[in-house]
Structure formats: C-alpha cells, structure tokens
Design brief:
With 180 residues, this protein is of the alpha/beta class. It has five helices and six strands; from the N terminus they run βαβαβαβαββα. The chain has a single domain, classed as 3-Layer(aba) Sandwich (Rossmann fold). Strands 1, 2, 3, 4, 5 and 6 form a six-stranded parallel beta sheet that branches.
C-alpha cells in the first residue's frame, strides 16, 4: 500500500484545509496509508540553526523520506500560499550534511485547496506550483482541486458533500499517478 503524507498549509486544527485533508484520508482508508504531517513546532528557517539538524526537522524529513507521495492542502492568504507551508518546504529543500539525496526531488505531489473566497485557492496553488517545479517535484497538475466559497456550520465544520465527486476524481487520479 502506498504511503501518502499530507501537508496542510494552515496550522489551525479546525482549518478548512485540514478538514478537507481529513475527508481525503477517510476516503483513502484501505487504499493508501494516509497521514497528516504535524509541524506546528517547526521553527522558522534560520541557517544559523541548520546544523546540527533540529529534532523537528529530522522528524519531518524522516516522515517525508518514508512516504511515496505528498498531498498538499493549500490555503490562500492574500492571494498566496501560507508562510507556514513555505517554511516547511524551505526546510525540506535544504541540504542535509553528508547526504547527497534531495528529499523532495521527483516526489509525486497532488495539490488541493479550499477557501471561503471566490477563487478557491487557485492563485495560491499557481504560486505553489512555481515553487514545487523549481524544486523538481513531480506535480500532478491535470487534476488539481480548488473548492471555493466554503462555509462552516455553527460547529466550525465544512460540508464537502457538494464537492464529493471532485474529491473522488482527484483521489482516483492521484492513485493512478503514483502507480505510473
């Protein structure tokens, strides 16, 4: 069974994108090993702190190395992806002393996003694709998912039932993409 590591670009536990990641995780049960990366304890990248490798960075790098693919759930903040998402990607892109094996290079990646705005994270995803392309990730561009005008109920939950067919199509496309 393939291992997919989800990176949610919002650190808020009840964020729309975390909720979407949880929906995808449930739908993948029995088909892939899906895990959400926890990285709220990750410090901002500072080259003064790069060596020796901080424990949080080591844990995150180990989780990525143990995965077959990444699925990024990208929020949109001011028409761009979040600083927390950029920070984790920056740490993963940095060299590891004594190792000449880029962690992210050629790793398959899917991108999804949900927002209350009218463009559904499309602009942020386009910026993210630019970064991921520079880092030589294997981006599944043909079936990206943007969910616009999301609304939460009084308990803070987003109802994804209207988007279920699009979520299912992206899941099927990504499973095939990973296997090719």
């Amino acid at each position: 069974m393939k291992k997919i590591l989800a990176i949610v670009g919002s650190l808020r536990k009840g964020s729309y994108n975390r909720q979407l990641a949880e929906v995808v995780g449930k739908k993948l049960e029995g088909r892939a090993d899906f895990k959400i990366l926890e990285y709220s304890d990750l410090k901002l990248l500072n080259q003064d702190d790069e060596f020796p490798e901080p424990e949080t960075v080591k844990r995150i790098r180990d989780e990525v190395r143990a995965s077959d693919a990444l699925w990024i759930f990208c929020p949109e903040y001011n028409h761009f992806f979040s600083g927390s998402l950029k920070n984790v990607i920056d740490w993963l892109s940095r060299p590891v002393r004594g190792v000449n094996n880029p962690i992210l290079q050629k790793m398959p990646v899917a991108i999804s996003g949900v927002s209350p705005g009218s463009n559904g994270t499309a602009l942020a995803q386009d910026h993210l694709v630019t970064l991921l392309s520079f880092l030589n990730l294997d981006i599944m561009n043909e079936r990206r998912l943007t969910i616009a005008e999301a609304k939460e109920d009084e308990d803070g939950k987003v109802d994804f039932s209207k988007n279920e067919s699009y979520i299912d199509k992206q899941i099927e496309a990504f499973l095939k993409y990973i296997e090719r």
